[in-house]
Design a protein that fits this description.
By secondary structure, this protein is α+β, with helices and mostly antiparallel strands. Helices cover 20% and strands 48% of the residues. The chain has two helices and seven strands; from the N terminus they run βββββββαα. The protein has a five-stranded mixed beta sheet, covered by helices on one side. A two-stranded antiparallel ribbon has the order 1-7. A hairpin with a 2-residue loop joins β3 and β4. The longest helix has 14 residues. 13% of the residues are buried.
Length: 126
């Protein structure tokens, strides 16, 4: 789903986008003529491979997402949210969901069995 940047008004707009097994839900809020803020949550489930044992498992996803979209080069600094610059005049939420999915898959993901083993090692129990 793409939303034209210029069509995002100063009134907050709630959006929900589903892609594959993930859903992005949140609020678009124009900050000024060149910056739009998105605050929301990515939910759903992903099929992942355990980084320790190599078995496939399903992980429930519930990640807060805070982004700002800049129509062109962003010259400021923002420690509150990641700033995404674009030049085509459209905010592409499909690519954002894909990027978040790839980021999760690229991380260290452990199945329940390996996660419980890890917790036992940390606390000295088996």
């Amino acid at each position: 789903m793409q939303i034209e940047f210029k069509k995002v008004g100063f009134n907050k707009k709630e959006i929900t986008i589903e892609r594959n097994s993930l859903q992005l839900h949140g609020v678009l809020d124009r900050q000024d003529k060149e910056l739009v803020k998105f605050t929301g949550e990515l939910t759903g489930s992903l099929e992942l491979e355990c980084s320790r044992c190599g078995l496939d498992f399903t992980k429930k996803i519930k990640e807060p997402i805070r982004l700002k979209f800049s129509d062109g080069i962003y010259r400021g600094f923002d420690d509150e949210a990641d700033v995404i610059e674009f030049y085509e005049g459209k905010i592409d939420f499909d690519s954002i969901i894909d990027s978040e999915e790839e980021s999760i898959k690229a991380g260290y993901n452990y199945c329940n069995h390996c996660e419980q083993q890890d917790e036992g090692e940390n606390y000295g129990s088996t």
